[in-house]
Automatic annotation (TrEMBL):
Cofactor: Zn(2+)
Protein's UniProt name: Dihydroorotase
Role, per record: Catalyzes the reversible cyclization of carbamoyl aspartate to dihydroorotate.
Domain Dihydroorotase catalytic: 53-238
Cofactor note: Binds 2 Zn(2+) ions per subunit.
Binding of substrate, residues: H64, L65, R66, N96, N280, H311, F325, G326
Pfam families: DHOase (PF12890)
EC number(s) stated in the UniProt entry for this protein: 3.5.2.3
EC top class named in words: hydrolase
Length: 438
């Protein structure tokens, strides 16, 4: 099986490639980077990528796929379909399923379901503590053996510093990164949105920025104490970013991600009490969003991750106070990244590829991903920086539609998604781009 992605502009920060080149994929793996003028290899199918950016496959470090246990919200297959429709060749699945992914049997089940779906690659993340209850460490060794790429109690942050210390020491022994949902629940209490002028005005209970910042400082300090690899999930506050910046200056193995909704929206978006503006961490005030934009451009932020968190319409139809936290994000992330970051001059195209592919692969040590070196997996995301398109949530591949971006128009999109040399998604604007060569 041969696929030649021809006439595109290749951007691969892992090997410093930024040039018009053809990319050849053979039997699922990158076979080589060729010049436009080189002969088309015998029997190759040609994908004409003229005018498009060809990048190593995008990797989302943070999704909730809801299987096992809440298949009415999402399954591994529907989540993986939404992923490829959004330009993601790989997604990393958080363990807050039912049962929690805190043992090898659940890990293996997730991997089997993903293999059955034959869509995006799915890398499971195991729990830090049994049932994510924060009481007893989970069997990280056995989960690692079964295929987890990281551990996290995302959604149920580890409350005790002592437990987190032991978790980091344990995870370090298995060379697993600890993905940290930073939230001091004693401060967040029963808040439902960012604490500030808008929570006052709207009469909703606030979650102070300090709830995230305190844990971020704590866990960066613990990263120093333990030497563990620590990755801060969905940072949303100036203080958490400052903690990461300091940790990096000290040479610690600390990285972080940001979500598209946190670099796009402020807490003002909650004004209409739309429960699709309710997520954890909450949308923050303008000053925090500015800190995120600065950190995206100066390199403090390592990755863009969606925190895709599907919920059923009936659950989101409750009052703001009672609706669950979370929004979907797989299909709007790249549109938002182009529209809000690239076209506004906050990041360049190579930085976009770093944030969505090179760095995620490095942070979770995903072998043969995030690069188009010969021998790497033939995972490719093709981008059209200028395509104008409108997101229609009713046509989403996800089972859920809880997004604040329904009906939004974007400039820039992921227009084709290729996993191990198989073209799994193409935007309708790319019809007629593929031909078989005898
Ligand atoms: N990010 C969210 O708003 N929700 C997450 C869990 C969580 O992190 O609270 C979910 O699983 O729904
Ligand atoms: Zn979380």
């Amino acid at each position: 099986m041969r696929l030649l992605i021809a006439n595109g502009y290749l951007i691969d920060p892992s090997q410093g490639v930024k040039a018009g080149r053809n990319l050849l994929i053979e039997d699922g793996r990158v076979a080589g980077i060729l010049n436009y003028s080189d002969d088309v290899p015998e029997g190759a199918e040609v994908f004409d990528a003229a005018g498009l950016i060809v990048a190593p496959g995008f990797i989302d470090l943070h999704v909730h796929l809801r299987e096992p246990g809440q298949e009415y919200k999402e399954t591994i297959a529907t989540g993986a379909a939404a992923a490829v429709a959004g330009g993601w060749t790989s997604v990393c699945a958080m363990p807050n399923t039912d049962p929690v992914n805190d043992n090898a049997a659940v890990t293996r089940f997730i991997i089997e379901q993903a293999e059955r779906a034959q869509l995006a690659n799915v890398f499971p993340i195991g729990a830090i503590t049994k049932g994510s209850r924060g009481e007893e460490l989970a069997e990280m060794g056995e989960m690692r053996e079964a295929g987890v790429v990281a551990v996290s109690d995302d959604g149920r942050p580890v409350p005790s510093a002592g437990m987190m210390r032991r978790a980091m020491e344990y995870a370090r022994g298995f060379d697993l990164p600890v993905v940290d949902h930073c939230e001091d629940r004693s401060l967040a209490a029963d808040g439902v949105m960012h604490e500030g002028v808008w929570s006052l005005r709207l009469g909703l209970r606030g979650i102070p920025a300090l709830a995230e910042e305190l844990d971020a400082w704590r866990d960066c300090a613990l990263a120093e104490l333990t030497g563990a690899r620590v990755h801060l999930a969905h940072v949303s506050t100036r203080g958490a970013i400052e903690a990461v910046r300091r940790a990096k200056e000290r040479g610690l193995s600390v990285t972080c991600e940001v979500t598209p909704h946190h670099f796009t929206l402020t807490d003002e978006a909650v004004e209409g009490y739309d429960t699709n503006t309710k997520m954890n961490p909450p949308l923050r005030s303008r000053d925090h969003v500015q800190a995120i934009l600065d950190a995206l451009s100066d390199g403090t932020i390592d990755a863009i991750a969606t925190d895709h968190a599907p919920h059923h319409a009936d659950e989101k139809a409750l009052e703001f106070d009672r609706a669950p936290f979370g929004i979907t994000g797989l299909e709007t992330a790249i549109g938002l990244a182009f529209d809000r970051l690239v076209h506004r001059g906050i990041i360049g195209l190579d930085r976009l590829v770093e944030l969505c592919s090179t760095n995620p692969a490095r942070i979770f040590k995903l072998e043969g991903r995030g690069t188009l070196r010969p021998g790497a997996w033939g995972d490719v995301t093709i981008l059209d920086p200028n395509l104008r398109w409108t997101f229609d949530a009713r046509r989403s591949r996800s089972k859920s539609r809880n997004t604040p971006f329904d009906g939004w128009t974007f400039q820039g999109a992921a227009v084709a998604t290729i996993v191990a040399g198989r073209v799994l998604y193409t935007h309708p604007s790319l019809e007629d781009r593929r031909r078989a060569i005898a």
